[in-house]
Design brief:
Elements lengths: L1 H12 L3 E3 L2 E3 L5 E4 L1 H12 L9 E9 L2 E10 L1 E3 L4 E3 L1 H14 L4 E8 L5 H11 L6 E5 L10 E10 L5 E7 L1 E4 L3 H11 L12 H28 L6 H13 L5 H38 L1
Parallel strand pairs: 3-5, 3-12, 8-9
Antiparallel strand pairs: 1-2, 4-5, 4-8, 6-7, 9-10, 10-11
């Protein structure tokens, strides 16, 4: 049944799939992964059934000029043994359609699996996702930390074989990077600080700001120390690193101390105004509730 459905869907969509209202064959040169996707994969692996050696799921995101942005993911039920593999394709398609309704700019871009091994069953699963998107990306995550770290690989496939004869595919590695927003980076650093601890610290806003400032000062000291070593000739210069440091310096606005103080005071006044309006709203709701009880 699985192979029949794959042949039917492949015959209707082909390599040039209907994607975002237009027919295209998209090349993939790079994959950018959001950190939330990795959290979802690890959570899916930890919640798996004892009979499953690995977990699989769908990757959601978008294409943009040869780059695949993976922003969401969801698990797909499947069973895998030494003799056969089965997956709930209807579930994968149904949840994928629901995801598209939530975010119309997001599409199926591939699938993931725990572990770094690619076997013959991976080709079968990849054939299904080949019918869902033009160039599916296969993401593998070493959730068992066999190399003392979470190894991440991304692959695309290339068709091999004889026309009108035996056909297959070969998985080709493609470069990837993990990029999140500034808020994501703050959260990730916070989680990294919890390694080896069982109790989550309850930090207020002031303590978090102080911790962030201390971390920033420490990083600035490291950069200054490296620059001094380069100027003294102790460390060879790196042109790429120099360009990155120049971009960072140029991105900082040239403001004096009084201007920064005025900006902080203005922001504080806005914050106090919002808190005051929130307090008034709560009081108004409480008064309305009491009036309704009396009436």
């Amino acid at each position: 049944w699985y192979q029949r459905r794959v042949r039917e869907r492949r015959g209707s969509s082909g390599i040039n799939a209907e994607y975002g209202g237009r027919t295209m064959n998209l090349p993939v040169r790079k994959v950018i992964i959001h950190p939330v996707v990795l959290f979802n994969i690890v959570d899916n692996y930890e919640r798996r059934n004892d009979n499953n050696k690995r977990v699989i799921g769908t990757l959601m995101g978008r294409y943009d000029k040869g780059t695949v942005y993976v922003t969401e993911s969801f698990a797909v039920p499947h069973q895998e043994t030494e003799e056969e593999v089965s997956m709930d394709m209807e579930y994968a398609m149904r949840i994928g359609e629901l995801q598209k309704k939530v975010n119309t700019s997001m599409y199926t871009v591939g699938w993931y699996s725990s572990g770094i091994i690619i076997n013959e069953y991976s080709s079968l699963i990849h054939a299904f996702y080949k019918c869902q998107c033009p160039t599916p990306v296969h993401l593998t995550v070493d959730t068992q930390l066999k190399e003392q770290k979470m190894k991440i690989n991304t692959h695309i496939t290339s068709q091999i074989g004889v026309k009108n004869g035996t056909e297959g595919c070969i998985f080709t590695p493609v470069s990837h990077s993990i990029i999140g927003s500034e808020a994501d980076q703050v959260s990730l650093k916070f989680f990294q600080g919890l390694r080896g601890t069982k109790k989550t610290p309850n930090l207020n806003d002031q303590e978090q700001i102080i911790s962030s400032c201390d971390d920033m000062i420490s990083q600035i000291n490291i950069v200054m120390g490296h620059v001094k070593k380069v100027l003294s000739g102790e460390v060879p210069s790196d042109k790429e690193l120099g360009r990155q440091l120049m971009e960072v310096v140029q991105s900082i606005p040239n403001l004096d101390g009084d201007t920064i103080t005025n900006m902080l005071n203005s922001h504080m006044q806005d914050l106090l105004a919002v808190e005051y309006l929130t307090y008034l709203t709560r009081q108004q709701l409480a008064i309305s509730a009491r009036i309704n009880q009396i009436l």
